[in-house]
Amino acid sequence: MVQAAVKMDEPELIRAAQQGDQRAFEQLVRLHDQNVLRLATNLLRSPEEANDIYQEAFLRVYKNLHTFRFDCSFHTWLYRIVSNLCLDALRKRKVRREESSLVETSEGYLDRMDTVEERRADSDPERRVASKQVREKIQEVLSGLSPRERAVFEMRHYQGMRLRTIGELMGTSEEAAKNCLFRATQKMRAALGDFV
Amino acid sequence: MTCEEARKNLPLFLYGELSFDEEELVEVHIDECDACRQELELEKAMFAALDGVELVPSAEALAESRAELRSRLALAGQPLGTSPVRGSAWWDKLREGFTIHFHFAPGIAQVAGAAVMLALGFLTARMTPNSLLGNWHSAGMVAPATSRVRYVEPVSPGRVQIVLDETRQRVLSGSVDDAAIQGLLLTAAKDSSDAGLRVESVDLLKNNSQSAEIRKALVYSLEHDPNAGVRLKALDGLKQFAQDPDTRQALTQVLLKDDNPGVRTQVIDLLVQRHTDAMVGVLQELMEKEDNSYIRMRCQKVLQEMNASAEMY
């Protein structure tokens, strides 16, 4: 009675999950969840909030997958959900002021982001100090970007998405996404000029 | 192309987001202009610096997110528009993990910290991992109490294969400090179908909140359980950890999101025992939407003590 594991492509997984196949849903999640968590982590710079976005996004996908009609790619559909959640979180954070990644513990202040791996580690102490300064400056600049600028920048720079796709999933034009990215890079260039 | 136009296009040039014609114009200009070529190098250096600060969630973080999602999906049940499917082992596993029914024998459950008698109702044999069969006493196993046909499948003319889910009841007893008992209590604390069972389970677990795993479960119940009684029990177990940063963060979220004024009242009483700068924004946000007069009064008092405005900027 054990069904043989069949390797399905994404549309097949979606159709199977729409029919209630939970294993297919899990496979579908695993095709995308690493990038979703990465995007949320980079956008929100908070592992806890990134996990919240991850949970909420895939729960929404789970509850609404039966409405997915292949009018757009699943990737676009999923990231529309993820980017909306991230934008909401960023806007909310703007209202309650930018949250520090520092948390107070019995051992003093710790940076929650220290629990997240950075892409490049530097073994040279001097360079590490310099790199820390640049990192802090970048963090400061990122915090100063509007939620939309930040989302577009993260999706283009770190997720490698095309501006056309970003525009589509954010419900705007490619041109508007381009302008957003342009403003973001301009601000970063102005702020980081002395550091690079 | 002027230098100004070229420089404006450099980021999009590096991202490969210019049209063929635009890219040509930038390339030609850079070939001819030293200053803009230097500017392009600076732009590249900035890109490299940005690459270096990309955050990559750890494998553990991803695994934790996946595990939490599984639990949440199990609680969410089958979504609309789908039908239960045959042979979906993952779903079966989820269902099995979260549809175990536990019942405490009357009287004994009230003796907190003492030995507890668990009657595991409708526990299929498959539901109990061997790893959980620790230091407890099995008081009895009876013949299958109920059966359910999972599905039928014709295998040849005139013959059929039937998959049956059999459920049976077992009575197990052990100390509430026993890891295996705690494992079952943790599972029962998430049983979406029986709020009474969750209240009893959380009530027993809360006395062991020094365990990080139990504390995590209590935080989960406090944040997500739909029943206020369960949330209050969980909160009770977390009181002594109100100064722990993770617990405090969870309490803050509960204060802002919980729809039950009784829960919010207890949370604010806990949070304001210690004034921190981070609380100001939270209390101001709360003042925007809170309609309970006691909570508003507590908020205002603390904000005054901290010389902060009651309104958000």
What is the gist of this entry?
By secondary structure, chain A is mostly helical.
Report on the structure:
Chain A has helices at 10-18, 22-44, 47-64, 74-95, 125-144, 147-157, 163-169, 174-192, and strands at residues 102-105, 108-111, 117-118. Chain A has 196 residues and is mostly helical. Chain A folds into 2 domains: 7-117, Rna Polymerase Sigma Factor, Chain: A, CATH 1.10.1740; 122-196, Winged helix-like DNA-binding domain superfamily/Winged helix DNA-binding domain (Arc Repressor Mutant, subunit A). Chain A has a two-stranded antiparallel ribbon. In chain A, α5 crosses α8 and α7 (163-169) crosses α8 (174-192). The longest helix of chain A has 23 residues, at 22-44. Residues 1-5 and 97-112 of chain A have low confidence and may be disordered. Chain B is α+β, with helices and mostly antiparallel strands and 313 residues long. Chain B is 53% helix and 15% strand. Chain B contains 13 helices and 6 strands. In chain B, strands 2, 3, 4, 5 and 6 form a 5-stranded antiparallel β-sheet that branches. In chain B, a hairpin with a 2-residue loop joins β5 (146-156) and β6 (159-175). In chain B, α12 (277-289) runs antiparallel to α13 (293-305). Chains A and B meet through α1, α2, α3, β1 and β3 of A and α1, α3, β1, α4 and α5 of B.
Mean pLDDT of chain B: 76
- Radius of gyration of CA atoms of chain A, rounded to a whole number: 19 Å
* Helical content class of chain B: 40-55%
Structural category of chain B is alpha+beta
Our estimate of the beta-strand percent of chain B is 15-25%
Going by CATH, what is the homologous superfamily of the largest domain in chain A? Answer: RNA polymerase sigma factor, region 2, helix turn helix motif
**Name of the top-level CATH class of the largest domain in chain A:** Mainly Alpha
* CATH fold assignment of the largest domain in chain A: Rna Polymerase Sigma Factor, Chain: A
- In whole angstroms, the N-to-C terminal distance of chain A is 62 Å
Beta content of chain A comes to 5-15%
| Helix-strand topology string of chain B | HHHEHHEEEEEHHHHHHHH
Assembly state here?
Answer: heterodimer
Count up the domains of chain A.
2
Largest interface: A-B, 70 and 57 residues
What Rg of chain B do the Cα atoms give?
29 Å
User: Unreliable stretches of chain B, pLDDT < 50, 5 or more residues?
Assistant: 85-144
Enumerate how many helices of chain B there are, as a single number: 13
How many H/I helices of chain A?
Answer: 8
Please state the average pLDDT score of chain A: 81
Strand order of the largest sheet of chain A: 1-2
Helix share bin of chain A: 55-70%
